Protein backbone atom coordinates (compact mmCIF):
# COMPACT_ATOMS: atom_id res chain seq x y z
CA UNK A 1 0.00 0.00 0.00
CA UNK A 2 1.13 3.55 -0.73
CA UNK A 3 -0.16 4.90 2.58
CA UNK A 4 -0.39 3.45 6.06
CA UNK A 5 -3.56 1.64 7.08
CA UNK A 6 -3.99 4.31 9.73
CA UNK A 7 -4.08 7.06 7.09
CA UNK A 8 -6.78 5.21 5.16
CA UNK A 9 -8.78 4.83 8.37
CA UNK A 10 -8.50 8.55 9.11
CA UNK A 11 -9.79 9.32 5.60
CA UNK A 12 -12.66 6.88 6.14
CA UNK A 13 -13.55 8.46 9.50
CA UNK A 14 -13.67 11.94 7.92
CA UNK A 15 -15.88 10.57 5.16
CA UNK A 16 -18.26 9.03 7.69
CA UNK A 17 -18.48 12.36 9.52
CA UNK A 18 -19.68 13.99 6.31
CA UNK A 19 -22.05 11.09 5.67
CA UNK A 20 -23.59 11.55 9.10
CA UNK A 21 -24.01 15.28 8.51
CA UNK A 22 -25.78 14.54 5.21
CA UNK A 23 -27.99 11.81 6.68
CA UNK A 24 -26.35 9.10 4.57
CA UNK A 25 -26.15 5.51 5.86
CA UNK A 26 -24.52 3.91 2.81
CA UNK A 27 -22.23 5.73 0.36
CA UNK A 28 -21.72 4.12 -3.05
CA UNK A 29 -18.53 5.50 -4.61
CA UNK A 30 -17.90 5.07 -8.33
CA UNK A 31 -15.33 7.83 -8.89
CA UNK A 32 -12.05 5.87 -9.18
CA UNK A 33 -10.06 8.65 -7.47
CA UNK A 34 -12.39 8.47 -4.48
CA UNK A 35 -12.19 4.67 -4.51
CA UNK A 36 -8.40 4.96 -4.52
CA UNK A 37 -8.40 7.59 -1.76
CA UNK A 38 -10.39 5.47 0.69
CA UNK A 39 -9.17 1.98 -0.19
CA UNK A 40 -5.95 2.23 -2.21
CA UNK A 41 -7.53 0.48 -5.21
CA UNK A 42 -5.62 1.29 -8.39
CA UNK A 43 -6.44 -0.40 -11.66
CA UNK A 44 -7.49 0.49 -15.21
CA UNK A 45 -10.89 -1.04 -14.66
CA UNK A 46 -13.07 2.07 -14.50
CA UNK A 47 -14.43 1.34 -17.98
CA UNK A 48 -16.73 -1.23 -16.34
CA UNK A 49 -19.04 -0.76 -13.38
CA UNK A 50 -17.30 -0.91 -10.01
CA UNK A 51 -17.71 0.77 -6.67
CA UNK A 52 -16.70 1.10 -3.07
CA UNK A 53 -19.59 0.83 -0.61
CA UNK A 54 -19.00 2.69 2.66
CA UNK A 55 -21.52 1.66 5.32
CA UNK A 56 -21.77 4.05 8.25
CA UNK A 57 -21.75 1.32 10.92
CA UNK A 58 -19.25 -1.05 9.32
CA UNK A 59 -15.50 -0.87 9.96
CA UNK A 60 -14.40 -1.47 6.37
CA UNK A 61 -15.88 -0.59 2.98
CA UNK A 62 -16.87 -3.19 0.42
CA UNK A 63 -15.12 -3.27 -2.94
CA UNK A 64 -17.55 -4.52 -5.62
CA UNK A 65 -16.25 -5.00 -9.14
CA UNK A 66 -15.52 -7.32 -12.01
CA UNK A 67 -14.31 -10.83 -11.13
CA UNK A 68 -11.07 -10.52 -13.08
CA UNK A 69 -10.23 -7.30 -11.21
CA UNK A 70 -10.73 -8.76 -7.73
CA UNK A 71 -7.10 -9.85 -7.41
CA UNK A 72 -6.11 -6.29 -8.27
CA UNK A 73 -8.22 -5.12 -5.35
CA UNK A 74 -6.54 -7.67 -3.10
CA UNK A 75 -3.13 -6.46 -4.29
CA UNK A 76 -3.68 -2.72 -3.84
CA UNK A 77 -6.19 -2.18 -1.01
CA UNK A 78 -6.06 -2.44 2.78
CA UNK A 79 -9.41 -4.27 2.86
CA UNK A 80 -9.94 -7.77 4.20
CA UNK A 81 -10.35 -10.17 1.31
CA UNK A 82 -13.86 -10.99 2.56
CA UNK A 83 -14.78 -7.37 1.78
CA UNK A 84 -13.78 -7.77 -1.87
CA UNK A 85 -16.88 -8.95 -3.70
CA UNK A 86 -16.61 -9.70 -7.44
CA UNK A 87 -19.45 -10.09 -9.91
CA UNK A 88 -19.29 -12.73 -12.70
CA UNK A 89 -18.13 -11.70 -16.16
CA UNK A 90 -21.53 -12.30 -17.72
CA UNK A 91 -22.61 -9.00 -16.12
CA UNK A 92 -20.06 -7.10 -18.21
CA UNK A 93 -21.64 -5.15 -21.10
CA UNK A 94 -24.63 -7.44 -21.09
CA UNK A 95 -28.02 -6.58 -22.56
CA UNK A 96 -29.90 -8.82 -20.12
CA UNK A 97 -28.28 -8.10 -16.74
CA UNK A 98 -26.43 -5.23 -15.14
CA UNK A 99 -23.76 -4.98 -12.42
CA UNK A 100 -25.96 -2.61 -10.41
CA UNK A 101 -28.46 -5.44 -10.06
CA UNK A 102 -25.65 -7.44 -8.49
CA UNK A 103 -24.89 -4.50 -6.18
CA UNK A 104 -28.56 -4.35 -5.22
CA UNK A 105 -28.55 -8.06 -4.39
CA UNK A 106 -25.46 -7.67 -2.17
CA UNK A 107 -26.95 -4.73 -0.28
CA UNK A 108 -30.18 -6.67 0.14
CA UNK A 109 -28.34 -9.68 1.56
CA UNK A 110 -26.62 -7.53 4.20
CA UNK A 111 -29.75 -5.64 5.23
CA UNK A 112 -29.20 -2.25 3.61
CA UNK A 113 -32.40 -2.04 1.56
CA UNK A 114 -34.25 0.61 3.58
CA UNK A 115 -31.41 3.00 4.28
CA UNK A 116 -30.40 6.41 2.98
CA UNK A 117 -27.98 5.69 0.15
CA UNK A 118 -25.63 8.33 -1.19
CA UNK A 119 -24.55 8.10 -4.81
CA UNK A 120 -22.16 10.12 -6.94
CA UNK A 121 -24.65 11.43 -9.48
CA UNK A 122 -22.05 13.70 -11.10
CA UNK A 123 -19.44 10.96 -11.57
CA UNK A 124 -18.22 10.31 -15.11
CA UNK A 125 -18.29 6.62 -14.23
CA UNK A 126 -21.91 6.29 -13.07
CA UNK A 127 -24.29 6.15 -16.00
CA UNK A 128 -27.98 6.93 -16.23
CA UNK A 129 -28.64 3.23 -16.82
CA UNK A 130 -26.61 2.30 -13.73
CA UNK A 131 -28.75 4.67 -11.67
CA UNK A 132 -32.00 3.23 -13.02
CA UNK A 133 -30.88 -0.36 -12.40
CA UNK A 134 -29.77 0.49 -8.86
CA UNK A 135 -33.08 2.21 -8.06
CA UNK A 136 -35.13 -0.66 -9.41
CA UNK A 137 -33.02 -3.15 -7.42
CA UNK A 138 -33.49 -1.20 -4.18
CA UNK A 139 -37.05 0.19 -4.37
CA UNK A 140 -37.29 0.89 -0.63
CA UNK A 141 -34.04 2.85 -0.36
CA UNK A 142 -33.87 6.64 -0.24
CA UNK A 143 -31.26 7.94 -2.66
CA UNK A 144 -29.28 11.11 -1.93
CA UNK A 145 -26.89 12.93 -4.26
CA UNK A 146 -23.41 12.73 -2.71
CA UNK A 147 -21.39 13.68 -5.80
CA UNK A 148 -18.59 15.64 -4.11
CA UNK A 149 -18.71 14.29 -0.57
CA UNK A 150 -15.38 12.46 -0.76
CA UNK A 151 -13.86 15.07 -3.08
CA UNK A 152 -14.12 17.65 -0.31
CA UNK A 153 -12.47 15.28 2.16
CA UNK A 154 -9.59 15.03 -0.33
CA UNK A 155 -9.10 18.80 -0.69
CA UNK A 156 -6.60 19.01 2.20
CA UNK A 157 -3.67 16.71 1.54
CA UNK A 158 -1.60 14.76 4.02
CA UNK A 159 2.16 15.27 4.13
CA UNK A 160 2.60 12.00 2.23
CA UNK A 161 0.26 13.20 -0.51
CA UNK A 162 2.22 16.45 -0.74
CA UNK A 163 5.39 14.39 -1.14
CA UNK A 164 3.82 12.59 -4.10
CA UNK A 165 2.66 15.86 -5.69
CA UNK A 166 6.15 17.33 -5.33
CA UNK A 167 7.59 14.30 -7.08
CA UNK A 168 5.05 14.84 -9.86
CA UNK A 169 6.27 18.45 -10.04
CA UNK A 170 9.84 17.29 -10.66
CA UNK A 171 8.57 15.04 -13.43
CA UNK A 172 6.65 17.86 -15.11
CA UNK A 173 9.72 20.11 -14.98
CA UNK A 174 11.56 17.46 -16.99
CA UNK A 175 8.59 17.02 -19.31
CA UNK A 176 8.33 20.77 -19.97
CA UNK A 177 12.04 20.98 -20.75
CA UNK A 178 11.58 18.15 -23.23
CA UNK A 179 8.52 19.83 -24.71
CA UNK A 180 10.15 23.20 -25.26
CA UNK A 181 13.20 21.54 -26.82
CA UNK A 182 11.05 19.33 -29.06
CA UNK A 183 9.07 22.18 -30.57
CA UNK A 184 11.19 22.97 -33.62
CA UNK A 185 10.37 24.08 -37.12
CA UNK A 186 9.86 20.99 -39.26
CA UNK A 187 9.22 18.59 -36.40
CA UNK A 188 5.83 16.92 -36.50
CA UNK A 189 3.57 17.71 -33.57
CA UNK A 190 2.92 14.00 -33.00
CA UNK A 191 6.64 13.31 -32.69
CA UNK A 192 6.96 16.01 -30.06
CA UNK A 193 3.98 14.57 -28.19
CA UNK A 194 5.60 11.13 -28.26
CA UNK A 195 8.80 12.22 -26.57
CA UNK A 196 6.88 14.36 -24.06
CA UNK A 197 4.91 11.27 -23.11
CA UNK A 198 8.11 9.27 -22.88
CA UNK A 199 9.69 11.62 -20.36
CA UNK A 200 6.53 12.07 -18.30
CA UNK A 201 6.26 8.32 -17.84
CA UNK A 202 10.01 7.65 -17.54
CA UNK A 203 10.13 10.24 -14.76
CA UNK A 204 13.44 10.95 -13.04
CA UNK A 205 16.43 8.77 -12.24
CA UNK A 206 15.09 8.38 -8.71
CA UNK A 207 11.47 7.48 -9.54
CA UNK A 208 9.26 6.83 -12.53
CA UNK A 209 6.10 8.57 -13.64
CA UNK A 210 2.50 7.44 -13.91
CA UNK A 211 0.11 8.10 -16.81
CA UNK A 212 -1.35 11.61 -16.49
CA UNK A 213 -5.13 11.98 -16.47
CA UNK A 214 -5.02 14.32 -19.49
CA UNK A 215 -2.94 13.89 -22.65
CA UNK A 216 -0.43 16.60 -23.64
CA UNK A 217 -2.35 19.60 -24.92
CA UNK A 218 -0.50 21.25 -27.83
CA UNK A 219 -2.64 23.79 -29.71
CA UNK A 220 -0.46 25.48 -32.34
CA UNK A 221 -0.71 28.57 -34.54
CA UNK A 222 -4.20 30.03 -34.67
CA UNK A 223 -5.37 27.05 -32.60
CA UNK A 224 -3.71 28.67 -29.57
CA UNK A 225 -6.94 30.70 -29.43
CA UNK A 226 -8.47 27.72 -27.61
CA UNK A 227 -6.94 25.70 -24.77
CA UNK A 228 -8.01 22.09 -25.16
CA UNK A 229 -6.74 20.89 -28.53
CA UNK A 230 -4.16 18.13 -28.81
CA UNK A 231 -1.49 17.46 -31.43
CA UNK A 232 -1.77 16.72 -35.16
CA UNK A 233 0.74 15.18 -37.55
CA UNK A 234 1.54 18.59 -39.05
CA UNK A 235 5.01 20.11 -38.58
CA UNK A 236 5.67 23.10 -36.37
CA UNK A 237 6.40 26.28 -38.34
CA UNK A 238 8.52 29.35 -37.77
CA UNK A 239 6.37 32.34 -36.89
CA UNK A 240 3.86 30.28 -34.89
CA UNK A 241 3.26 29.83 -31.20
CA UNK A 242 2.41 26.59 -29.39
CA UNK A 243 0.77 26.21 -26.00
CA UNK A 244 1.98 23.28 -23.89
CA UNK A 245 -0.17 22.07 -21.01
CA UNK A 246 1.01 18.86 -19.34
CA UNK A 247 1.24 17.30 -15.90
CA UNK A 248 3.67 15.10 -14.08
CA UNK A 249 1.96 12.22 -12.32
CA UNK A 250 3.29 10.07 -9.49
CA UNK A 251 1.12 7.33 -7.97
CA UNK A 252 -1.94 9.09 -9.47
CA UNK A 253 -1.02 12.48 -7.92
CA UNK A 254 -0.58 15.32 -10.42
CA UNK A 255 1.30 18.57 -10.81
CA UNK A 256 0.23 20.44 -13.98
CA UNK A 257 2.20 23.13 -15.78
CA UNK A 258 1.56 25.26 -18.88
CA UNK A 259 3.90 27.39 -20.99
CA UNK A 260 3.77 29.01 -24.41
CA UNK A 261 6.56 28.71 -26.98
CA UNK A 262 7.10 31.03 -29.94
CA UNK A 263 9.15 29.83 -32.90
CA UNK A 264 10.76 33.06 -33.96
CA UNK A 265 9.93 36.53 -32.72
CA UNK A 266 6.28 36.79 -31.61
CA UNK A 267 4.02 39.67 -32.54
CA UNK A 268 4.35 42.72 -30.30
CA UNK A 269 0.76 42.17 -29.23
CA UNK A 270 1.39 38.59 -28.11
CA UNK A 271 4.58 39.56 -26.32
CA UNK A 272 2.80 42.32 -24.38
CA UNK A 273 -0.04 39.96 -23.43
CA UNK A 274 2.49 37.44 -22.13
CA UNK A 275 3.92 40.11 -19.80
CA UNK A 276 0.41 40.91 -18.56
CA UNK A 277 -0.24 37.21 -17.89
CA UNK A 278 2.96 36.93 -15.83
CA UNK A 279 2.18 40.14 -13.95
CA UNK A 280 -1.28 38.88 -13.09
CA UNK A 281 0.00 35.43 -12.19
CA UNK A 282 2.52 36.93 -9.77
CA UNK A 283 -0.12 39.17 -8.23
CA UNK A 284 -2.43 36.19 -7.73
CA UNK A 285 0.28 34.14 -6.04
CA UNK A 286 1.10 37.04 -3.72
CA UNK A 287 -2.31 36.82 -1.99
CA UNK A 288 -2.23 33.06 -1.35
CA UNK A 289 -2.13 32.30 2.36
CA UNK A 290 -4.25 30.45 4.92
CA UNK A 291 -7.49 32.30 5.57
CA UNK A 292 -7.66 33.94 2.14
CA UNK A 293 -10.53 33.01 -0.14
CA UNK A 294 -10.33 31.50 -3.59
CA UNK A 295 -12.05 34.58 -4.97
CA UNK A 296 -9.32 36.79 -3.44
CA UNK A 297 -6.77 35.15 -5.73
CA UNK A 298 -8.96 35.76 -8.77
CA UNK A 299 -9.58 39.37 -7.75
CA UNK A 300 -5.84 40.10 -7.61
CA UNK A 301 -5.48 38.71 -11.14
CA UNK A 302 -8.58 40.54 -12.41
CA UNK A 303 -7.34 43.88 -11.09
CA UNK A 304 -4.13 43.49 -13.09
CA UNK A 305 -5.70 42.58 -16.41
CA UNK A 306 -8.43 45.22 -15.99
CA UNK A 307 -5.74 47.92 -16.10
CA UNK A 308 -4.99 46.71 -19.62
CA UNK A 309 -8.61 46.50 -20.71
CA UNK A 310 -8.73 42.70 -20.66
CA UNK A 311 -11.52 40.48 -19.30
CA UNK A 312 -11.08 36.75 -18.68
CA UNK A 313 -14.39 34.85 -18.80
CA UNK A 314 -13.18 31.49 -17.50
CA UNK A 315 -12.00 30.57 -14.01
CA UNK A 316 -8.40 31.13 -13.02
CA UNK A 317 -7.70 27.73 -11.51
CA UNK A 318 -8.90 24.76 -9.52
CA UNK A 319 -8.02 22.31 -6.79
CA UNK A 320 -6.03 19.35 -8.08
CA UNK A 321 -4.14 16.27 -6.99
CA UNK A 322 -5.25 12.61 -7.08
CA UNK A 323 -7.21 11.60 -10.15
CA UNK A 324 -7.83 9.35 -13.14
CA UNK A 325 -8.76 10.15 -16.75
CA UNK A 326 -10.32 12.30 -18.02
CA UNK A 327 -9.30 15.06 -15.57
CA UNK A 328 -6.66 15.91 -12.94
CA UNK A 329 -8.90 18.52 -11.28
CA UNK A 330 -10.75 17.60 -8.08
CA UNK A 331 -14.04 19.35 -9.03
CA UNK A 332 -14.23 21.20 -5.70
CA UNK A 333 -12.78 24.68 -5.17
CA UNK A 334 -12.34 26.97 -8.17
CA UNK A 335 -10.30 30.15 -8.27
CA UNK A 336 -13.01 32.49 -9.51
CA UNK A 337 -15.26 35.30 -8.40
CA UNK A 338 -17.84 34.07 -5.91
CA UNK A 339 -15.92 31.02 -4.67
CA UNK A 340 -15.51 31.64 -0.95
CA UNK A 341 -13.54 28.49 -0.19
CA UNK A 342 -11.16 29.35 2.64
CA UNK A 343 -7.56 28.42 1.86
CA UNK A 344 -5.97 26.01 4.34
CA UNK A 345 -2.48 24.52 4.56
CA UNK A 346 -1.85 21.60 2.18
CA UNK A 347 -4.52 22.56 -0.30
CA UNK A 348 -3.06 22.33 -3.82
CA UNK A 349 -4.19 24.21 -6.93
CA UNK A 350 -3.42 24.65 -10.59
CA UNK A 351 -3.37 28.41 -11.29
CA UNK A 352 -3.81 28.86 -15.02
CA UNK A 353 -4.25 32.48 -16.11
CA UNK A 354 -4.61 31.76 -19.82
CA UNK A 355 -5.87 34.44 -22.18
CA UNK A 356 -7.39 33.44 -25.50
CA UNK A 357 -8.32 35.75 -28.35
CA UNK A 358 -9.67 35.25 -31.89
CA UNK A 359 -6.39 34.19 -33.49
CA UNK A 360 -3.94 33.44 -30.68
CA UNK A 361 -3.63 32.73 -26.97
CA UNK A 362 -1.09 32.70 -24.15
CA UNK A 363 -0.92 30.24 -21.24
CA UNK A 364 1.64 30.42 -18.45
CA UNK A 365 0.55 28.48 -15.36
CA UNK A 366 1.82 27.29 -11.98
CA UNK A 367 0.74 24.64 -9.52
CA UNK A 368 1.01 25.64 -5.88
CA UNK A 369 0.55 24.46 -2.32
CA UNK A 370 -0.92 26.57 0.46
CA UNK A 371 1.62 26.53 3.31
CA UNK A 372 1.28 27.46 6.98
CA UNK A 373 2.23 31.04 6.16
CA UNK A 374 1.76 31.57 2.43
CA UNK A 375 2.39 29.78 -0.84
CA UNK A 376 4.83 27.27 -2.30
CA UNK A 377 5.10 27.12 -6.08
CA UNK A 378 5.70 23.48 -6.92
CA UNK A 379 7.86 23.80 -10.03
CA UNK A 380 10.90 25.84 -10.99
CA UNK A 381 10.59 26.76 -14.64
CA UNK A 382 11.06 30.12 -16.43
CA UNK A 383 7.84 32.09 -16.01
CA UNK A 384 7.72 33.81 -19.39
CA UNK A 385 6.86 33.45 -23.04
CA UNK A 386 9.58 31.13 -24.36
CA UNK A 387 10.99 32.55 -27.59
CA UNK A 388 13.10 30.36 -29.85
CA UNK A 389 14.87 32.20 -32.66
CA UNK A 390 14.30 31.23 -36.30
CA UNK A 391 15.69 27.78 -36.91
CA UNK A 392 16.72 25.56 -39.75
CA UNK A 393 14.25 22.81 -40.47
CA UNK A 394 14.71 20.13 -37.79
CA UNK A 395 16.03 16.87 -39.15
CA UNK A 396 15.42 14.57 -36.21
CA UNK A 397 14.49 14.98 -32.55
CA UNK A 398 14.84 11.43 -31.30
What is this structure, in a nutshell?
This protein has 398 residues and is α/β, with parallel strands linked by helices. The protein has helices at 5-22, 32-39, 70-76, 99-109, 128-137, 149-154, 159-182, 189-202, 268-286, 294-307, and strands spanning 26-29, 51-55, 62-66, 84-87, 116-119, 142-145, 241-250, 253-263, 317-320, 329-335, 348-351, 355-356, 361-362, 366-370, 375-377, 386-388. The protein has 10 helices and 16 strands.
Could you give the topology of this structure?
Elements: H1 5-22, E1 26-29, H2 32-39, E2 51-55, E3 62-66, H3 70-76, E4 84-87, H4 99-109, E5 116-119, H5 128-137, E6 142-145, H6 149-154, H7 159-182, H8 189-202, E7 241-250, E8 253-263, H9 268-286, H10 294-307, E9 317-320, E10 329-335, E11 348-351, E12 355-356, E13 361-362, E14 366-370, E15 375-377, E16 386-388
Parallel strand pairs: 1-5, 3-4, 5-6, 8-16
Antiparallel strand pairs: 1-2, 2-3, 7-8, 9-10, 9-11, 11-14, 12-13, 14-15
Helix pairs in contact: 4-5, 7-8, 9-10
Main-sheet strand order equals: 4-3-2-1-5-6
Distance between the termini: 36 Å
Q: How many strand elements?
A: 16
Radius of gyration: 23 Å
**Amount of helix:** 25-40%
Multimerization state: single chain
Order of helices and strands: HEHEEHEHEHEHHHEEHHEEEEEEEE
* Shape annotation: globular
Low-confidence stretches: 393-398
Strand content: 15-25%
Major sheet: 6 strands, mixed
Q: Could you report the average pLDDT, rounded to the nearest whole number?
A: 96
Structural class estimated from helices and strands? alpha/beta
Separate helix tally? 10
Amino acid sequence: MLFSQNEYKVRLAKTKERMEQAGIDVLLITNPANMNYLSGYDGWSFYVDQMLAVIIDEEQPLWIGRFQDANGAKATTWLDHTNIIPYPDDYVQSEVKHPMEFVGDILTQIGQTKRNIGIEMESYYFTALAYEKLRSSLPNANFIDASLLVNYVRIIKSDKEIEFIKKAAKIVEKGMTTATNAIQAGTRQCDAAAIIYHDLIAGTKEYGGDYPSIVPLLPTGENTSTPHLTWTDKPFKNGEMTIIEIAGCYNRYHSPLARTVSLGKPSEKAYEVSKIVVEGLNAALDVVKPGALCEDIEEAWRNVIAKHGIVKESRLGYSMGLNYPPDWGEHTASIRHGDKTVLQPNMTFHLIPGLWFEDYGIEISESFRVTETGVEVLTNFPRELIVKEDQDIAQQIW
